[in-house]
Design goal:
The chain is of the alpha/beta class and 865 residues long. The chain has 4 domains: 3-27 and 311-401, no CATH class; 43-287, Glycosidases (TIM Barrel, Alpha-Beta Barrel), CATH 3.20.20; 422-544 and 582-632, Alpha-Beta Complex (Spore Coat Polysaccharide Biosynthesis Protein SpsA, Chain A), CATH 3.90.550.10; 685-848, no CATH class.
């Protein structure tokens, strides 16, 4: 690489790195807020730490509580508790040692026996401990509808009669307005005002608290007001305009406590320490209301500017290093790539690296159980896999669009060539329409090539009326054509081709294979065989093509989808001598095939043979020029079966040759060949893994619908990677088909719909391929009759069922969530996007059921004369 080009690359990388660093800085702009005051009125205090949960009977020790109380003395002299159960009843005694006053909480629920125990012990503690300055009987018990107003009044009167300190109950502010009669039975109004739960944006929340306080004072002028809970969570779902994150918590609390102090309000900040156990009761957000985290570290700076992510400099550096590592791999062997392509790959590498670092950071802020850690590891692996697939997709796009020239172009040989070895053309058949096969044989008879033979191998067709007309036609075409009917014959298509090898003329140096529906051009052998003059070339391949794309809209969409592989993927693979050999329009050197033979254990014997050719250090030649056209599947089920076979065979090959592909030992595979074989099948693996994402999304959505107040939408990190990959792949198809294949936007959209429709089928094939060794070989039928709508719907019943489930989940969430916030709407959007492949499958099935024009009598296909 020239010094000038290296300099341009360096400038480009620095510019992109500066852009992403600037984005980190912009997102983390400092925001001003009043410093935390020297003293606040009080903290709500729950002493539970990680792995401690009162619902499971795990409580902190007295020493742990002492340490917590000592930490709080630097900010307040007043705390509020919620229960006197077990060691919690010792908090007033321990607080006395630290010089803290206590507002004692007595927990009430629908367990009347437990209520009696709480009240008795609460009264006892309040009488004994001098630092108990007031007692709160029940916490939102009326709001939870666990006791009645009459029961609450009875409890309040009973406790007030037993104690000399003020007594009240704590409820959300609107409960006091709903039950104003409570005021006659309390010594003060203890109200919770939490704007987050009421969908109030942080910017308006301080004013919201003050307005509620004024309303309560006006409604109960003779009773002192205690704001028994004020606070903001640092993590969790967004509720309307209320965003739960550390910066919002810091800005709100620092402004709020200063305002309340200035106005002389008595209040408790909820809460001192994060309580991870509360996530089970209040949703994920319940764990994150503390000013200190569960490790007893401040969650935000108490003075100075507030930033969204305080460690953003470190994260930006980490994403930069990760991006450079990815870029170094992407730009290996990129000398022919234009500067635009390098810039594009640099942008993608930094985007992917930034997403991975952000995902890792966001997950690190969560409190995790063993289940959460397990999910996190799986999520990390899944996110990494998705990003690798995204990088490989970007690499293919760049090499397709922005390469100066093809490295290994193999153009048809149009001038006369003295190299004319004998070619043996093999045509495997099974239960094929005789008139279609005759058409194929007629095209072969017109080949403009001096020395060739044609072997037709009909394996396992039971009905003589199908294979005997083909046999007779071969006899009529002359001695070049030989027909074999073999039954039984094992080994799928590979077994039939190996049988043909045994009957091939000893003079043949090249073996060509075409499917029984392919009509070849007369110049096929004449213009492609000369490539074998290079002794290093073992395989010569030209693309599959089709002649019935105008027969129906269904086939037009299929045709658009097929073109991408042969005019995008195969072209870029050919530059690194890594094409996928496919079993029609392919030629193989006889000596190589005699040694390697077709694999009878694999249902994609063609691709498997091509890989073994590369393992021997031999090469392949690929020409984009079409020399033959076949017939596409007539129905959606046959379209799916064909793709299932391809994807399942790919998994068979991956498992069988995994060590060779990953390590490259014991063979002559180049790094480029190993890369393309693995990267080429990664998107199919991603489709397989996406099944688990869909299943998990449905389960999570069901929980959101059933218990909307306890189950939050999944974190963005669960949904963002697969969504990003889907959007990128869709955009890539639309862009590449227009730029590289040369089709209009309508045909590009057709290719996208047809490709999406196969996602579920590919996913099933991948999963079956990973857990099974073999399945029966199924052919792709041609010239099948039309079928009705009900049959078409049955062909896509699995996809339709999943689509309905996803749509139902999206609708159910929308209806069950009160004032859905951005996170809810984002998750609904994810569900709808996730349904698109299933909708595409249903559309393709219905299109395949539309009436087709009556076919003309089989004669010579157009364009093949």
């Amino acid at each position: 690489m020239s010094a000038r080009k290296m300099g341009l690359n360096l400038v480009m990388v620095v510019a992109v790195a500066s852009l992403f660093t600037g984005l980190w800085a912009w997102f983390n702009q400092p925001q001003e807020a009043p410093d935390w005051p020297d003293q606040i009125a009080g903290y709500s205090f729950s002493p539970f730490r990680l792995q401690q949960d009162p619902q499971e009977g795990t409580y902190p020790s007295e020493d742990e509580i002492r340490a917590d109380l000592e930490l709080l003395t630097s900010q307040t002299d007043n705390i509020r508790t919620y229960s006197v159960d077990k060691v919690l009843g010792e908090i007033p005694r321990l607080a006395e040692e630290a010089g803290l006053r206590v507002t004692l909480g007595i927990w009430l629920s629908n367990d009347l026996e437990a209520n009696e125990a709480q009240i008795e012990r609460g009264i006892e503690i309040a009488k004994r401990e001098r630092n108990v300055i007031r007692v709160i009987v029940g916490n939102e018990a009326l709001f939870r509808e666990e006791i009645t107003v009459e029961q609450m009044i009875g409890y309040l009167d009973r406790v007030r009669a037993a104690l000399k300190v003020p007594v009240t109950t704590a409820e959300q502010w609107h409960i006091w307005e709903k039950y104003p009669e409570l005021a006659k039975h309390v010594d003060l109004i203890a109200a919770h005002v939490l704007p987050y739960w009421e969908f109030v944006p942080r910017e308006h929340s301080v004013a919201f608290v003050l307005d509620r306080a004024r309303e309560l004072k006006k409604a109960f002028p003779k009773k002192p007001l205690l704001l028994a809970e004020v606070g903001w969570p640092s993590n969790g779902r967004t509720r309307g305009g209320a965003v739960a994150d550390q910066a919002e918590q810091a800005l709100y609390l620092r402004e709020l406590v200063n305002t309340l102090n200035a106005n002389g309000y008595n209040y408790f900040v909820i809460e001192a320490f994060d309580q991870p156990w509360k996530a089970g009761e209040e949703g994920a957000v319940g764990a994150y209301w503390g000013v200190f985290n569960a490790e007893r570290q401040p969650k935000f700076p108490l003075s100075g500017p507030v930033v969204e992510i305080p460690q953003w400099h470190l994260l930006a550096s980490a994403s930069g290093v990760l991006a450079l590592l990815a870029l170094a791999l992407l730009l290996i062997d990129s000398s022919a790539l234009r500067q635009r392509g390098r810039t594009f790959l640099t942008l993608v590498a930094f985007l992917v690296a930034t997403m991975l670092v952000w995902i890792a950071y966001d997950f690190s802020q969560q409190y995790s159980t063993w289940f959460g850690i397990t999910v996190g590891v799986l999520l990390a692996l899944g996110a990494l896999g998705v990003m690798i697939v995204l990088l490989t997709e970007a690499h293919e796009l760049a090499e397709t669009v922005w390469k100066r020239q093809r490295v290994r172009p193999f153009l048809p040989v149009t001038q006369d060539s003295s190299y004319r070895p004998m070619v043996s053309v093999h045509v495997p058949c099974y239960n094929e329409p005789p008139e279609m096969v005759k058409q194929t044989l007629n095209a072969l008879a017109r080949l403009d090539y001096p020395h060739f033979e044609v072997l037709v191998i009909d394996n396992n067709t039971r009905d003589p009326s199908i294979w005997e007309p083909v046999q007779a036609h071969c006899e009529a075409l002359g001695t070049r054509f030989r027909f074999f009917h073999v039954a039984p014959l094992a080994g799928f298509k590979g077994g039939a081709l190996n049988y043909a090898m045994q009957h091939t003329s000893p003079e043949a140096e090249v073996i060509a294979v075409i499917d029984s529906d392919y009509c070849v051009s007369p110049n096929w052998l004449k213009q492609m065989v000369p490539h074998f003059a290079d002794p290093q070339i073992a395989v010569v391949q030209s693309p599959q093509d089709y002649r019935d794309e105008h027969e129906s809209l269904f086939k037009k969409l299929c045709y658009a989808e097929y073109k991408g592989f042969f005019h995008i993927g195969m072209v870029t693979r050919n530059d690194r001598d890594a094409i996928i050999q496919h079993g029609t329009m392919t030629m193989t050197r006889r000596s190589v095939l005699d040694e390697l033979k077709w694999a009878e254990w694999c249902i994609t014997e063609d691709a498997e043979l091509g890989l073994r050719v590369f393992q021997k250090g031999l090469s392949a030649a690929y020409s984009e020029h079409s020399f033959g056209k076949g017939l596409m599947p007539d129905t959606f089920i046959d379209f799916k079966k064909q793709r299932f076979r391809w994807a399942y065979g790919a998994m068979q090959i991956c498992k069988h040759h995994l060590a060779s592909l990953l390590l490259g030992r014991g063979n002559d595979l180049t790094r480029g060949q190993r890369y393309h074989f693995l990267a080429g099948w990664l998107p199919w693996v991603a489709d397989g893994l996406n099944v688990f994402f869909t299943f998990g999304a449905l389960l999570w959505s069901a929980a959101m619908i059933i218990v909307p107040n306890r189950v939050d939408p999944p974190l963005l990190i669960f949904a963002l990677p697969p969504l990003a990959l889907f959007v990128f792949k869709l955009g890539k198809i639309l862009f590449l088909y227009r730029r590289a294949v040369g089709v209009n936007m309508r045909d590009a959209m057709s290719a996208a719909v047809a490709g999406l429709a196969l996602s579920h089928t590919i996913a099933k094939a991948v999963l079956f391929g990973l857990v099974t060794r073999s399945i029966p070989f199924f052919r792709t039928p041609k010239l099948r009759s039309s079928h009705g709508v009900l049959v078409a719907l049955a062909e896509a019943r699995e996809e339709a069922f999943v689509m309905v489930l996803l749509w139902g989940a999206a609708l159910g969430i929308t209806l069950s969530q009160k004032q859905p916030g951005l996170d809810v709407m984002f998750w609904v959007g994810v569900l709808l996007v996730q349904s698109l492949p299933y909708l595409a499958a249903l559309v393709m099935a219905l299109l395949s059921s539309l009436p087709k024009p009556q076919p003309a009598p089989l004669g010579e296909p157009a364009g093949m004369q």
